[in-house]
Specification:
single chain
Length: 346
């Protein structure tokens, strides 16, 4: 019996040493990984007219990159381009494009090639958010979320890949969400599509590394980008908007957008496989991995406390304001909305 215990202890020690050795090698490889400069690089940002996309554009421009902004709303896009050009940060090209339409995506990339040459860095950031209970969601809500969060990144990736492969170098950053790791109640279309993006992004990482193309999957928690006024709310839309915007405004729950963007740019620079942005996102992902049953039970409890209304009428956040959401409690989100082109000015 004692001999068996010694053998088991020996095997455990060997396993621990092997794991430590692998960890040390991986750590050394991470330290030696190329940290690229974005000076003179061409960066294509989808969803670049407002929110996180606009914040990322400012940071890439500050690093000397040429930036292409892409978005559906031409007025917002023009306003974002004018702001960036006014600051004199660098070269900016704005291209209206519905990235869920493959034909438009291919035309956009062709236009970029004509102006700047091949895309060096692709950031798939375009997004949409639908908030409400499952009973309020329609098949169209799921279709829309998949179009923007799965098909659009696939189309843009396929469009830039030939030149990246030809040169043997490229960076692709897919902005998913902690909702792509842990499915949050009342965000089902959003979470389902973000889970799909995580799977796509991880698979692309594995298959494209041999071509010198590094794909980074970004899963942030709440960020104060100012986006709630432009999200869609269903069911009891005022109550749904209230919990969403309050969480977005609390410093402990959400992260400053500029800080989040810096972490994303650095993850892209290093070519990291994954970037979990914000402590709440890291804790939630770890809890889901270590205790899936307990996590599911907690989320079910949270769901029972949330508004329950099956109305399928859809409202923008800006049309769901109440005295509470207009109060000082949400001032951080309102400041971010003003700063990041999220306010309705037209």
């Amino acid at each position: 019996m004692a001999g068996r215990n010694k053998k088991e202890a020996s095997r455990l020690s060997l396993g621990a040493l092997t794991a430590a050795g692998v960890g040390a090698v991986m750590g050394l490889r991470a330290l030696l990984r190329e940290k690229v400069s974005f000076e003179g690089r061409t960066v294509l940002l989808t969803g670049g007219s407002r929110g996180l996309g606009l914040v990322l554009a400012r940071q890439f421009l500050a690093e000397g990159a040429r930036v292409i902004l892409s978005a559906r709303e031409e007025v917002e896009l023009t306003r974002a381009r004018d702001e960036l050009e006014k600051d004199g940060a660098g070269e900016v090209l704005a291209i209206p494009c519905d990235v869920s339409d493959r034909v438009q995506v291919e035309a956009m990339v062709a236009q970029v090639h004509e102006r700047f040459g091949a895309v060096d860095v692709l950031v798939n950031n375009a997004g949409t958010i639908q908030v409400g209970p499952l009973e309020s969601m329609t098949e169209e809500d799921f279709d829309e979320a998949m179009d923007v969060h799965f098909w659009a990144p696939l189309y843009t990736t396929l469009a830039v890949l030939p030149e990246m492969k030809r040169r043997g170098w490229g960076r692709i950053v897919n902005i998913s969400s902690i909702g792509g790791k842990v499915s949050i109640p009342h965000l089902l279309p959003y979470s389902a599509s973000k889970f799909a993006l995580v799977g796509l992004s991880d698979g692309l990482r594995a298959e494209l590394a041999q071509d010198g193309i590094l794909v980074t999957t970004v899963c942030p928690g709440l960020m104060r980008t100012g986006s709630p006024p432009n999200a869609y709310f269903k069911g009891n839309h005022e109550a749904e908007y209230a919990w969403f915007v309050l969480g977005d405004s609390l410093p402990g729950m959400s992260m400053n957008a500029e800080r989040a963007a810096r972490k994303i740019v650095e993850a892209c620079r290093r070519g990291d496989a994954e970037a979990l942005i914000g402590m709440p996102a890291k804790v939630a992902a770890l809890a889901r991995t270590l205790a899936p049953g307990l996590t599911a039970a907690l989320l079910a409890h949270v769901n029972r406390m949330m508004p329950q209304d099956s109305s399928t009428d859809r409202h923008r956040g800006r049309d769901s304001e109440t005295p509470l959401t207009r109060s000082w409690v949400t001032q951080l989100t309102r400041r971010a909305a003003q700063k990041n082109n999220e306010e309705l000015l037209h």
